[in-house]
Amino acid sequence: MAEKLGAESKDLVLFHNGANPLVSQEEISEVIKAAKQYGAALVGQPAKDTIKKASKSGLLLKTIDRRSIFLAQTPQAIKYDLAKKSFERAETRKFQGTDDVSLVEQLGKRVKIIPCSYRNIKVTTKDDLRVIETFLKNR
Fold first, then answer.
1. Predicted confidence band at 1 (pLDDT cuts at 50, 70, 90)?
2. Mean pLDDT throughout 95-122?
3. d(CA 88, CA 66)
4. Residue 107, domain CATH
5. Which parts of the chain are beta strand (E)?
6. Structural domain count of the chain
7. For residues 63 and 6, which has the higher predicted lDDT (pLDDT)?
8. Cα dist. 122→2, 12, 45, 74, 127 in Å?
9. Is 128 a residue whose pLDDT tops 80?
10. How many CB atoms lie within 10 A of CB 109?
11. 2 falls in which pLDDT band (50, 70, 90)?
12. Which residue, of 10, 40, 114, 136, is most buried by count of CB atoms within 10 Å of its CB?
């Protein structure tokens, strides 16, 4: 489809979902800049909480260093040729990623993460909606 619209290999495809309504222009610009350099990029919130890994039975296995943990958000950007290859391979292998850049990861390619504001939360629960409403009231 994108090729029919004139997409070329080095063009960028940006993915953004409406569940992240408070993304900033700066975050959008930074993810575009990083995708141009690395081929793929996304914004993510640095983890604030202590992260614990547990077994299926709920027993603590270990504490993970939160300095390397990010909560993936949108926008995400991928060079067109890389996006096309990623989506085609995912379809062939019946791989369903949890976000768009996970399809790039399955190719073994690097993805740059840009730290973003905690205002750029994904609204998935009623509590998230209340947080967004508070942010909007206090703008």
1. low
2. 95
3. 33
4. 3.90.550.10
5. 12-15, 40-46, 51-54, 60-64, 70-79, 112-115
6. 1
7. 63
8. 27, 23, 11, 8, 11
9. yes
10. 17
11. confident
12. 40
Pairing relationship of beta strands 40-46 and 112-115 according to DSSP bridges: parallel
Domain that residue 124 falls in: 3-137
The bridge status of strand 60-64 relative to strand 51-54 is antiparallel
Q: Which tokens is 127 given?
A: 């509590």
Q: Tokens 């504001």 identify what position?
A: 117
**Rounded CA separation 101/13 (Å):** 11
User: How many CB atoms neighbour CB 63 within 10 A?
Assistant: 10
Residue 115 identity:
P
77 exposed, middle or buried (CB, 10 Å; 0-12, 13-18, 19+)? buried
Q: How many other C-beta atoms are found inside a 10 Å radius of the C-beta of residue 17?
A: 15
Q: In the numeric block, which tokens belong to residue 126? A: 């009623």
State pLDDT tens for residues 12-66: 999 999 999 999 999 999 999 999 999 999 999 999 999 999 999 999 999 999 9
